Amino acid sequence: MQQRRRESRPMRLKSATYQRKPSYLDEHSIDYVDYKDVKLLQRFISPQGKVLPKRITRLATTQQRQVTQAIKRARHLALLPFVTDADTY
Questions:
Q1: pTM: predicted TM-score of the whole model, two decimal places
Q2: DSSP character string of 10-61
Q3: C-beta separation of 80 from 71 below 8 A
Q4: Which of 17, 41, 43, 81 has the greatest number of beta carbons closer than 10 A?
Q5: Which CATH number fits domain 31-76: 2.40.50.140, 3.20.20.480, 4.10.640.10, 1.10.3370.10?
Q6: Mind listing the pLDDT tens digit for each residue in 25-34?
């Protein structure tokens, strides 16, 4: 029995045609993340007190850096806790 050779076809790459969901900062047109805005910063912190990654928060890279810097400043001034218990958060 003779096997048929398959002709090699160039691989097609799937194009990213979907629109990424806008981040919270983009939706509310927030340009500057202030370290004194504790309610906003708590949105980007896990119940244990860790900074949430940008794939979960949907932030852009520059926005993620601003949020992280603001959280660090707020922690240093004791506006936010460094570590929290999951029960009391």
A1: 0.73
A2: PPPPPP--SPPPPPHHHHTT--S--TT-HHHHHTTB-TTSPBPPHHHHT--H
A3: yes
A4: 41
A5: 4.10.640.10
A6: 999 999 999 9
The number of residues making up the chain comes to 89
Q: What own/partner pairs with CB < 8 Å and gap ≥ 24 does 36-41 have? A: 36/74, 36/79, 37/70, 38/74, 38/79, 38/80, 41/67, 41/70, 41/71, 41/74, 41/80
